[in-house]
Amino acid sequence: MYHLLSRVRGVVVSRRTSWLVALLPLLLAGALIGLGEGERDRTPLDNVPAGADSTAALELAEELPEQDGTVAVVLFTADDDGPLGERVPELEGLVAELTGGAPTLQPSEDGTAAIAVVPLDASSATEVSDAVTDLRDRLADGVPDGLTAQVTGPAGIEADLAAVFEGADLRLLAITALVVAVLLVVTYRSPILWVVPLLVVGAADRLAAVLATHVLALLDVAWDESTVGILSVLVFGAGSNYALLLISRYRDELRSREDRFAAMDVALRHTAEAVLTSASTVVVGVLTLVLSLTPTTRGLGIACAVGITVAALFVLLVLPAALVCFGRWIFWPTAPKHGDAVLAESRSTWRRIGDVVARRPAAYVVGSAVLLVALAAGTTQISTGLGTSEQFLDTPEAITASERIAESFPAGTAEPTQVVTRADADDVSAAVEGVDGVDAVRVTNEGAGVTQLDVTLASTPGSDAAEASVEDLRAALADFPDTHVGGASADSLDEADGNARDRLVILPLILLLVLGVLGLLLRSILAPVILVGTVVATFAAALGASWWIFTGLLGFANLAGNVPLFAFLFLVALGIDYNIFLVTRTREEAREHGTREGVLRALGATGGVITSAGILLAAVFAVLGVLPLVVLAQLGVVICIGVLLDTLLVRTVVVPAIVRLLGERFWWPRQHA
Q: Can you tell which superkingdom this protein's organism belongs to (predicted)?
């Protein structure tokens, strides 16, 4: 393996072949990017956990006839919020035109609103969005003066959710690239150098999106609009971190060597181990998501594994070759000169911080632990689960209309709960009507021995009261064969159970796998346990601090159910990177200077680049907030806080202090580095 890596380095940094290694992958990436992202027909089963009762309801409903369409609920109100009165006949005529049949207008008891159910011949997300847009256009042209029409219901909510991501990939990519560019300029203080890593990582990002979606399509694994967004942020963040580490080492080696090719060869040799270990840790971590019960979560894990692999390969192959094609002037105006002091020998800010920590390491460990525990206290108050109306940062029309319907009709009118059964429909209806919280029940489809009943609940969909009604329904129908309860409230309940199960299975597995990777890298038991323990403490502190921000500053009532799992995964997998960068350099320095001095020299050499990498990664994940979905905004905040804590406190203070306390015992059962 060593000889193979040596030969690869020889090709990457050769005077004769470097330009080919830099150019050919970029041309190949351009050609593959031209193919476009993969496509797959999405189904309602993509976002519900396997084995759940709501999932079984969807599967059974597929046997019903005429299931290719969906329905929208149109709400009519007067502009002055008064009664509709004599305007009702006009609305009945409009509804008859929309439905192509007899009017189905249903006025409210207080007379201030009316609703109509409009079937739409659409099944895919694109078709639903187009159909809802067309319906809204027709309503805008046909609604009588003085009245307002709004579209909600299953179709309206699906269309508005899809609208969140219209142009989102391009917007997210542009803002992410801008953030990375600014931080690279600040880090390198060069108006030229930043262009090279940004182009390399940008090409890796676009190639990763194409490859990942085609792999998912080939494997028939589900993904959704947020998958590519999270993938892009991950590739830009991790790829830029790897690039910062390589360029920092290359610049340092240029101070020791006249020949830039020799300098890059040494830099690549020392950097490759840390980058490959880091990438392996992230890949292994994200692949644990394939054990999730939710199909789109499994798709996210596979996509992220592809993305990290592409990012690491581009940074280790394309970036070194591209950099050595230029002279030292690429670092202008602070180009390193042969003979300048290397970072490990200099009295950098980070070395001075390390010296301060080294004087009283125990005090810094205890003080840091107290701070992390105090921040983590917020985790004891966390509640999870978002209702439909709580998923958007900006309230769309479908949610506004649904909330208005709840003022004049039973709250569950816009999003009825479905009962799908093979049992006798009359018996099932009677059982449903006897459940508290049920306002109405009616048969909406039947055939092939299967019946679907729409159940209108008195409670707002997704609320605690609605979920309690779903549980009561399931209890009342438990004795009916092949009978299942679905719909928005049932989905929320089952998603919460699925998320809890995923955390129980996946979180311990992530820790074991990361411990295994670190154990192989360091050939130690104690060091991996310490490093993983610090990252877990960082996660708990970040989650607790974020909860106070969410409830105190941002006004969120709950945390999205999958945020703890995703935040833990990314913080452990990515947060361990900085410890890997620090500890691998510590081991290198310890061979000559001993572990206690080695960690200070490593901190001095890597402190600047790791801090820059952490700030960059935190900023990149914060960019998720540009998408108006609460789950992505919350995920971005937790990871941003966690990365900053890990970079500025754990890696700078806690780990060096622990290594200073333990000395050579840090590598136990090995005797030395």
A: Bacteria
DSSP-derived secondary structure for 97-120? HHHTSS---EE-TTSSEEEEEEEE
CA 465 to chain centre: 29
What is the mean predicted confidence (pLDDT) over 372-391?
Answer: 84
Residue with tokens 């207008």: 105
CATH of domain 56-163: 3.30.70
Query: How far is the first Cα of the chain from the last one, in angstroms, to the nearest whole number?
Result: 22
pTM of the model: 0.84
Phi/psi for 457 (5° steps) reads: -95, 155
Ordered strands of the 147-152 beta sheet: 106-107, 113-120, 70-78, 147-152
Angle value at C-alpha 94, between 397 and 64, nearest 5 degrees: 70
Nearest to 653 by CA among 603, 583, 601: 603
CA 127/CA 72 separation, integer angstroms: 13
What tokens appear for 543 in the block? 């989650």
For the domain made up of 1-36+166-340, give the CATH fold.
Multidrug efflux transporter AcrB transmembrane fold (1.20.1640)
Structure tokens at 107: 């006025």
Q: Using CA atoms, how far apart are residues 336 and 188, in angstroms rounded to an integer?
A: 11
Residue 106 CA to residue 113 CA, distance in Å, equals: 9
Domain spans of the chain? 1-36+166-340, 56-163, 342-397+487-673, 416-486
Where are any strands of DSSP class E within 500-616? none
Average pLDDT in the 137-141 region? Answer: 87
Q: What integer pLDDT is reported at residue 2 of this predicted model?
A: 41
Domain 416-486 in the same topology as domain 56-163: yes
Q: Report how far residue 241's alpha carbon sits from residue 164's, in angstroms, rounded to the nearest whole number.
A: 29
Least confident of 40-44, 326-330, 401-405, 629-633: 40-44
| CA–CA gap between residue 183 and residue 615 (Å, rounded) | 8
222 exposure class (CB count in 10 Å sphere: 0-12, 13-18, 19+): buried
Beta carbons within 8 Å of 53's beta carbon, 6+ residues apart: 474, 484, 485, 486, 490, 494
Backbone phi and psi for residue 419, each to the nearest 5 degrees, phi listed first: -115, 120
**Residue 1 confidence (pLDDT) above 50:** no
Contact 564, 384 (CB under 8 A): yes
Average pLDDT score over residue span 152-168: 77
Residue type, 176: T
Tokens of 112: 């201030």
Distance, CA of 92 to CA of 255 (rounded, Å): 82
Q: Give the other-Cβ count within 10 Å of 305's Cβ.
A: 21
Bridge partners (DSSP) listed for residue 392? 629
Task: Judge contact between 399 and 389, C-beta under 8 A.
Answer: yes
Pick the CATH number of 342-397+487-673 from 3.30.2130.10, 1.10.510.10, 1.20.1640.10, 1.10.10.10: 1.20.1640.10
Asked if 437 and 474 touch (Cβ cutoff 8 Å), the reply is no
Work out the pLDDT band at 293, boundaries 50, 70, 90. Answer: very high
Q: What sign for the dihedral angle of Cα 211, 216, 220, 222?
A: negative
Beta-bridge partners for 72 = 118
Q: What angle do CA 261, 264, 268 make, to 5 degrees?
A: 140
Strand partners, 484: 420
Q: Is residue 154 helix, strand or coil? A: helix
Among 249-263, 380-394, 599-613, name the one with the lowest average pLDDT: 380-394
Q: How confident is the model at residue 216, as a pLDDT? A: 93
Sign of the C-alpha dihedral computed for residues 430, 436, 439 and 445 taken in this order: negative
